[in-house]
Amino acid sequence: MRNNSSKLDNATLSLFQNVNTSIAISVIYMIVTVINLVGNGLSMWLLIFRTTPKTASIIFMINLTLTDLALGAALPFQIAYQLQGYHWNLGRGMCSFLTLVFYTNMYCSVLTMMAISIDRYLGIVRPMMFRNIKDKKIIAVISCLFMWGLVLSVLHPLMTTDLTFDIPELGITTCFDVLKKDMLPSVLAWASFLFTLAFILFLFPFCVTTFCYVSVIRKLGKDSKTAQKERAIRLAAIVLLVFTLCFAPNNILLLTHSVLRLFYNKSLYMAYKLSLCFSCLNSCLDPFIYYFASRDFRQKLRQIVNMPSQSGGDSMKMEQKDSLYTTNCAFEGQDRENNEQ
What we know:
The protein is mainly alpha-helical. It is 72% helix and 2% strand.
C-alpha cells in the first residue's frame, strides 16, 4: 500500500492546492444538489402517489429516481470535502460508502435507462413479443434487483478497501482521489475491474439504448403522427445526452487515468475530477426522461403547474398502457390506425 505523497504526480498535488478549482467544483455540486432533490423529490412523489397503475415502466422510473435521490443525499458530504481543501475527516468507512453511492448511481442509471429503452422498443417496434406475459411488473422488479446486485458486486472492492490517502506535507487526508494499486490483488484483477466498468456497465448498455431509440424513431416515422415522432426524438435526445455528457467522459477518463496511473506513473487527474463532477448532472436530467416517457407522469405534472393538457392524439400509442414489452391496447390501436388509413 502506498502511504506517502512522494509518488503523487505534480498535477495531482497542484490540484489539491488549487482553491479556485475546489470552489468551482463545490458550486457545481451545490447547484446539482438543489436541482436533484427538488426535481427527483417531486418525481418520486408523482410516481409513487399520483401515477397509476404502477406499470413496469413506472417501476423502472422509480428505481432511477431512487438512485438519483441517494446521490443527492451524498453530495453535501462531497461539497464539505471540497471546501475543506480535499480533507476527509469522516473516517474510512464513510469514504467507502459515499464513493459506492456515487458509482452505484452512475451504473444503475445506465442500466435502468437501457431497460426503459428496451421497454419502448418492444412495445412499439415489436408489439407481438411477450404480449401474453401477465407478470410484467414482477419482471421489472426482478430486473431492478438484478441491476443493483450486478453493480454492487462489481463495485464490491470499493467497500472492502481503505480509499483514504494521507498527504502529510499538505496536512490532508483524501477520499478516493488517489488510486491505490493494492485495492485489487493483481494486474488481472484490475484489468477485469476496469473492463467491466467501461465495457459491460457502460459501452454495452449505451449501444443497446442507442439501437432501441433509433429503431423506435424509425418505426414511428413510418406509422405515427408527427407529434408522436417528435416526442420520441426528444426522449432519445435526452437519454443520449445523458450518456454522452454525463457518463461517457467519466468512464473513458477513468479507464485512461487508471491505466496511466497504475502502469506509467502518469495521470489525467484534473480531467477525471471534472468528468466526475459532470457525471452527477444525470440526476438533474432524469426527470425530463419521465416527462417524455410516461403520459400519466406528464399529465400529473401539468396539473400541478397549471399547464393545459395535450390532446390524446398527441400521445404515443405505447403510453396507453406504458407497460413492459407490449400491451394488447397498443397493438390494437396500431391496427385501428392502419385500417383507417
